Amino acid sequence: MDLPIDPHLFQLYLVAVVILILIPGPDFLLVLGRSLFDGKRAGWTAIAGITLGNFTHSTLAAAGISAVVAASPALFQGLKTAGAAYLAFLGVKALIAARHHWKHHGAAGAVRQDAGLDARRIFTQALVTNLLNAKVILFYLAFLPQFVAPQLGHVALQMFIMGQMVAIIGGLYLLVIAAFAARAANRIAANRWFRAGVEALSGVIFLGFALRLFMTERKLV
């Protein structure tokens, strides 16, 4: 059975998706931080949460539920505010962690490498961060439809298939990031000065993501 997808549009879509995925965002930052400071299993756990979030986004978009959220000013504003608040929370938490490491400067020893890993917390944090990102909803509703071929029919199926590609390609890219970060962890992240600097930078970036998300306009064209 042939899939109802225009091959040329699909190729262009894949190129565009790869370019967009390479632009660092909250998901990238979460995976990088967890892999550096908590080990590769923590990075994989965060990736699992993010991937589930992307799968959920694409499924909701194909079902038309995301369109309802985006079309409702109240729903969209509520989601956007919740997402921005959560990113701000992560930013403040990272800054507090940076202050702690800065006060206790010096060698920190080896990175924990998954010792006492709180997988549920890491998974939930990554999932919630992804699901509350209103910009992801706008991506599926404003960007993805440009590569749909209505004349082929099954528009919802086309959106679902292309949406899943974001989750798959994004997940594979994050696995590479996690692998490199985990390998470098014991060499560079064990020093508290370094960790404090990375935590502080992450906190500032998360706060920047929060502000950018809060300023996101509800535009679908």
Explain this structure to me?
There is one protein chain. 77% of the residues lie in helices and 0% in strands. It has 221 residues and is mainly α.
Task: Give the helices and strands, then pairings.
Blueprint: H1 7-21, H2 26-38, H3 40-63, H4 65-71, H5 73-103, H6 119-131, H7 134-143, H8 155-189, H9 192-214
Helix pairs in contact: 1-8, 2-3, 2-6, 2-8, 2-9, 3-6, 3-7, 3-8, 5-9
In short:
By secondary structure, the protein is mainly α.
The value of Rg in angstroms is: 19 Å
Q: Helix share of residues?
A: over 70%
The low-confidence runs, each spanning 5 or more residues with pLDDT under 50, are 106-111
Main pleated-sheet profile: none
Shape: globular
Q: Residue-averaged pLDDT, rounded?
A: 80
Number of strands: 0
Order of helices and strands: HHHHHHHHH
Percentage of β-strand residues: under 5%
Number of helices: 9
Question: Alpha-carbon distance between the termini?
Answer: 33 Å
Characteristic terms for this protein:
9 helices; single chain; mainly alpha; 221 residues; globular
